[in-house]
Every structure is written in structure tokens, then in C-alpha cells.
Write a structure and sequence with these properties.
The structure is a single chain. With 84 residues, the protein is mostly helical. It has a domain at 34-78. Helices cover 56% and strands 0% of the residues. The chain contains four helices and no strands. Helix 3 packs antiparallel against helix 4 (65-76). The longest helix is centred in the middle third of the chain and has 15 residues, at 45-59. The termini are far apart.
């Protein structure tokens, strides 16, 4: 029986995990303000605006999970060919 190796995380997934504070104390609580400010620094203004509006819409019940997922894909996934 062969063991499959898990794929290495994508650069984007690694970047997002770097935003989270180290596991200390209560692992259920993240430093929300710190995470938000770091994420805001990574996004272009127009991307950030749509992302935060979408997140607030989801949290307030105005958007469903699929709608939020579309916003996240559109605003957080890198554009093909960018940086080349």
C-alpha cells in the first residue's frame, strides 16, 4: 500500500496562514484587528472594499456562502500572468 504525500500549501494559502498569530493561550481567539490590518495591507483598495463589504453582507445574512465565496475568489486569488 503506498502512502500519498499531501500537497504542499499554495503560496496564497501559506500567506494567509502567516496572517494568523502564533498559537498561544486560547487557540479559539485570533487577534482580529491584527489579522484585519495585515489583510487590508495586502489588498488593493478596490479589492479590499469589495471583500469587506462582502464579509459584512455575509455576517449580516445579506449574502449566502456561495456569494461570499465568489467575492473571495475574485478578490483574493492571484490573477493569472500577474507578476511575470
Amino acid at each position: 500500500m503506498s502512502r500519498s504525500t499531501s500537497p504542499s500549501p499554495s503560496p496564497q494559502a501559506q500567506l494567509l496562514s502567516d496572517l494568523l498569530p502564533p498559537a498561544q493561550g486560547d487557540p479559539k481567539r485570533a487577534h482580529v484587528v491584527s489579522v484585519k490590518s495585515q489583510l487590508a495591507g495586502l489588498l488593493e483598495p478596490e479589492d479590499g472594499e469589495e471583500y469587506w463589504e462582502g464579509l459584512m453582507g455575509f455576517l449580516s445574512g445579506k449574502l449566502n456562502r456561495d456569494e461570499l465565496g465568489q467575492i473571495i475568489k475574485r478578490r483574493l486569488e492571484p490573477v493569472e500572468g500577474a507578476g511575470q
